[in-house]
Design goal:
Blueprint lengths: L14 E2 L2 E2 L7 E6 L14 H9 L17 E3 L4 H20 L8 H30 L3 E6 L6 H10 L4 E5 L19 H8 L5 E7 L4 H8 L5 E5 H9 L4 H10 L5 E5 L23
Parallel strand pairs: 3-4, 3-5, 6-7, 6-9, 7-8
Antiparallel strand pairs: 1-2
């Protein structure tokens, strides 16, 4: 395969894997969302979509298990420059809040203004993601989201939940993401699944896999959910395999907890951090390829 490699700065609308496909002919549309303003440790996911497009040219188009799935048409849309600008503004405001620290007066005018600015920009982002996801679903496409941090997925989940009532979510992650307004940010990456279960009642089940870092508040949230949130902790999965359970048996149990229609939400830190060493919040343990 010979293909021109996209630069780090930009790519043509629809390019990925070094193959240019007209959007109207594609079955799968990937929506890049370069936004990571609420990231609480290592930054850089804002450049995730660019890095994925660039790395995709090194992947052979033939796959042993699935053959040539690219023939169905997979495209990555070009970035919306407004989102990167929102991110830069929100990042600067978020630093004011984070630098003030938990012991500061969160109601101090400067801190409160900065926090409100972050929340306003994040709300604008969620509305944009939701509208764009709706637009491509209406066009008959399978829509995927490429972040950015995990918070960007709320709008896409909301759009799918309207189209698929009683939808479930398969959530692969190191973190439960069930904190309430973490660091004062309503749309924090640490609050994405809390926002989903609280704001989208039509999501019937949240099935979490690989979780190994959560606070007491999140543990209580899971226990009080009456089975709506079902979590397979990483230690549980590992101990079961030490005792003889196969990965296939574990997967079958996890899938049995899901309804017919499923939205997959995958955070790269669900993997062992040796496989993704630059993830922003690495946690020992995790899934392997």
């Amino acid at each position: 395969m010979s293909a021109a490699k996209p630069t780090r700065e930009s790519w043509a609308d629809g390019d990925i894997y070094g193959v240019s496909v007209p959007v109207e002919r594609a079955s799968v549309v990937l929506l890049p969302v370069p936004f990571d303003a609420t990231t609480s440790y290592g930054r850089g996911t804002v450049d995730g979509p660019r890095a994925i497009v660039q790395a995709s040219t090194q992947v052979d188009l033939y796959d042993v298990e699935t053959g040539q799935p690219y023939q169905a048409g997979i495209v990555m849309l070009s970035e919306n420059e407004d989102i990167r600008a929102w991110n830069e503004t929100a990042q600067a405001a978020a630093r004011v809040v984070v630098d003030a620290g938990e012991d500061s007066d969160a109601a101090a005018p400067r801190v409160a203004r900065a926090r409100d600015q972050v929340n306003t920009l994040c709300t604008r982002l969620q509305e944009w993601v939701e509208a764009e996801t709706e637009r491509w679903l209406d066009a008959g496409k399978i829509v995927g989201l490429v972040g950015g941090d995990h918070s960007v997925s709320y709008g896409a989940i909301a759009a799918h939940a309207r189209r698929y009532p009683d939808m479930g979510i398969l959530h692969v992650d190191a973190h439960a993401d069930l904190r309430h307004a973490y660091q004062g940010f309503t749309w924090s990456h640490a609050s994405i699944m809390e926002n989903v279960v609280r704001r989208i009642p039509s999501v019937s089940r949240l099935v979490q896999v690989g979780i190994r870092d959560l606070c007491e508040e999140e543990s209580e949230r899971i226990q009080a959910s009456d089975g709506r949130i079902r979590t397979s902790f990483d230690t549980q999965l590992t101990n079961e395999r030490f005792e003889g359970a196969t990965w296939g048996q574990q997967v079958a149990r996890i899938v049995d907890d899901l309804p017919r229609d499923v939205f997959v939400s995958f955070d790269v830190d669900g993997l062992d951090p040796t496989l993704c060493p630059h993830t922003g919040t690495p946690v020992p343990g995790g899934l392997s390829f």
